[in-house]
Specification:
CATH topology of the largest domain: Rossmann fold
Helix content: 40-55%
CATH class of the largest domain: Alpha Beta
Oligomer: single chain
Number of domains: 2
Number of helices: 17
Order of helices and strands: EHEHEHHEHEHEHEHEHEHEHEHEHHEHHH
CATH architecture of the largest domain: 3-Layer(aba) Sandwich
Strand order of the largest sheet: 3-2-1-4-5-6-7
Shape: globular
């Protein structure tokens, strides 16, 4: 069978990598063409466009780059027509992928959406359109299947979360740290514009902990020279790229940008603080549209503030310094947080891995 997979961000490429691997195990003759990154390409998929060319964050950033986005949409449709896949598999990235879903269904292609848009947070009106153009919706958060069934009378498939498998594998292979590391991980995000907002604040905190090494986990799609200008005057800070899980597992705590990374950090058992600081106009718009009690997936899944969230003006040097000090020194809080993280893992694990479950459903759907 022929599969056309679209992922537009680093997290989508990570999860797409495992999906490509699982599809090849289910379908030995699979031909896979993708939009993604190095991970999916490493598993044998033919890479059409790298996510570096696709990632635009925020309302006004999207508007500024609208001509590029429209060109990408046009090119994608032409490429799908040329490849003639048996199924179009869309991974997250809803601004782009929902438009492709509408077009692909109308053009006669089978459409599977893996990792649902977060319509339970905002833009719930999208669901009517989604039901019309998506043949199978595969969700990865434990409350999503109930949401779609209860509010939209739509039976979707909960396959578990792919990060439960990915992080479990890493925990079994990472060598134990021989000595106390006194290390703090800084995860400022994967896009230049968000890094420019958050990294300077994170770095400022390092001066209050001179006996700790601070390690910036550089995004895989960015040149290391981009980070160098931020590091002047911070002697206890270094940059590493391509080893985010190792950085986290060698650390005592982490300051993490809101997004998938907060969930990864929790599943690896590392105490963390969640950070978000964006374009003021984009944030103002989002605040009026989004209706959820927390911004981190950790807290949303657990239904409580297991990790503290520092959003926009609250993400400042003073707040992060105090929180990091507590994460490093308050043993009772550290143990409580790690206990919450174990509960989190139990909610995200189902029989088999998420990627295997998703691949099995996709292949069975094609067999119909």
């Amino acid at each position: 069978m022929k599969y056309y997979i679209i992922a537009g961000e680093a997290s989508g490429d990570l999860q797409g990598r495992y999906l490509v691997r699982a599809l090849r195990q289910q379908d030995r003759l699979a031909q896979i063409r993708c939009w993604g990154g190095d991970g999916m390409e490493a598993e044998g998929a033919t890479l059409v466009k790298h996510f570096r060319e696709l990632a635009f964050m925020g309302f006004f950033e999207v508007l500024r780059n609208l001509p590029t986005i429209l060109r990408n949409l046009h090119f994608c449709k032409k490429d799908i027509q040329s490849f003639q896949p048996d199924v179009v598999v869309l991974i997250d990235y809803p601004g782009f992928n929902l438009r492709i879903a509408q077009w692909a269904k109308y053009a006669g292609y089978k459409v599977v959406y893996y990792i649902s848009p977060q319509v339970w947070a905002w833009k719930a009106n999208r669901v009517k359109m989604m039901k019309q153009c998506i043949d199978r919706l595969l969700v990865i958060l434990p409350f999503e299947d109930e949401y779609y069934q209860k509010h939209w009378d739509w039976k979707v498939d909960y396959v578990g979360h792919p990060l439960a498998q990915i992080t479990a594998e890493k925990l079994t292979t990472h060598p134990p740290t021989a000595h106390p590391t006194k290390q703090v991980a800084l995860l400022p995000g994967s896009r230049k514009q968000e890094i420019q907002k958050k990294l300077p604040v994170m770095l400022a905190v390092s001066q209050y902990f001179p006996d700790h090494r601070f390690v910036v986990a550089a995004a895989p799609g960015l040149d290391l020279t981009f980070y160098q200008s931020f590091l002047a005057g911070y002697p206890n800070v270094e940059i590493r790229q391509g080893h985010t899980y190792d950085i986290l597992l060698d650390s005592d705590a982490a300051l993490v940008t809101s997004g998938t990374a907060t969930l990864e950090t929790a599943l690896l058992g590392i105490p963390e603080a969640v950070c978000y600081k964006g374009n003021p106009l984009s944030y103002a718009v989002a605040k009026r549209l989004v209706n959820i009690p927390y911004i981190s997936l950790v807290n949303l899944i657990l239904g409580k503030p297991a990790v503290r969230e520092f959003i926009q003006h609250d993400m400042n040097e003073k707040n992060l310094r105090m929180e990091l000090g507590d994460l490093l020194l308050n043993e009772k809080r550290r143990e409580s947080m790690k206990s919450d993280f174990q509960t989190l893992r139990s909610k995200l694990e189902v029989g088999g891995s998420a990627s295997e479950n998703a691949a099995r459903i996709i292949v069975r759907e094609l067999a119909k």
